[in-house]
Amino acid sequence: MDKNMLSEYAKLMVKVGANVQKGQKVRLYAEVDQYELATLVAKECYNAGASYVEMFWSCGAVERLHYENASVETLGTVLSWEEERQKQMVKDLPARIFIESADPDELSGIPADVISTVGRMRSKVLKKYRDEIDGKHQWLIVAAASPKWAKKVFTDDDSNTAVEKLWNAIFSCVYLDGNKNWEQVWKQHTDTMREKADWLNSKRFKSLRYKSSNGTDFTVQLIPGAKWCGAADINRVNGAAYVPNMPTEEVFTMPDYRKAEGKVVSSRPLSYRGNLIKDFSLTFHEGKVVDFDAREGYDALKQLLDTDEGSKSLGEVALVPYASPISEMGILFYNTLFDENASCHLALGECYPTTVQDGEKMNEE
């Protein structure tokens, strides 16, 4: 991969995506195979004036070994030092940058109920810290090409060619291909998304109806005061503007979780905790999923829906233009960061407080 392009990508992450501020701490998360890109990102963070960059490494192969050999109790236990690290995060309010490059089939074959149980156990302890920093720091999720992910996307190519193709696709999706003035390009893009959100807000729509040729026929009502949001967000503490997801082509809002009716049929797979859920459908009645199916990943989908009392209801509805760059590529990325930006989408569970008027001032209840 062209090191100049990687360097530009790192600058994009730090200057536009996370918008790291002078004196701010940074938490950087990456797979071990992305050490070169992670080094460039850390360098750019320091160039932006970061006071310290704390590195969090992960390894998919080792993660799989954990699930194959360690007990659920061990994997689900949050140790005291981990919790102290979360407490420090709440105190420091660092910018957080997540670089995704994992194999979509990383945990394929691991029982879905095991993965789900571990996730629930850890979330019981860690969720309160994530909630505490919500809206108070900048964060960013981006992607990096890896051999296993690339071969999943470009199955007919050798590994090197597949990786090169995936990098080129990633750069295209984040408007880096051929754009020397990418800061201006991203300003125009986020301004456009905000204009679309403002237009939707001005119309005060009460409901949305989704229909498609694959069998989707679904209606969801919006709550009074539902607020459409675009690509960019603002840190309420320091006023820094940032872009949480790169790429991003969506505007989104909060539905009335009690009022959703009909059937939704997927056009793209969902990558969920290392398992792919493909060709799936959800049927809603009175706001809850009452029936579901999947050609592949049925057990993972079942566990997702059984996560808690809110996981059978909607927390977010999003609109994506039919002619989005990712859709026009015709590439199935097997990665939600990209595939959700190829079509309108829905999210189960919780939504952001920013998607309802004055939501940031409300208590959780």
Largest sheet: 6 strands, antiparallel
Q: Indicate the overall shape.
A: globular
Give me the Rg, rounded.
Answer: 20 Å
Helix content: 25-40%
**Strand percentage:** 15-25%
Assembly state here?
Answer: single chain
Number of strands: 15
H/I helix tally:
12
Give the structural class: alpha+beta
What order do the helices and strands follow? HEHEHHHEHEHHHEEEEEEEEEHEHHE
Low-confidence stretches: none
Mean pLDDT: 94
Distance from N terminus to C terminus (CA atoms, Å) equals 49 Å
Describe this protein with a few key phrases.
six-stranded antiparallel β-sheet; alpha+beta; 24% strand; 365 residues; 38% helix
Brief characterization of the structure:
With 365 residues, the protein is α+β, with helices and mostly antiparallel strands. The protein has helices at 3-17, 35-47, 60-69, 72-76, 80-92, 112-133, 147-153, 159-173, 182-203, 298-305, 325-329, 336-339, and strands at residues 25-31, 52-58, 95-100, 139-143, 207-211, 217-222, 233-234, 241-242, 251-253, 255-265, 270-272, 275-285, 288-296, 314-319, 345-348.
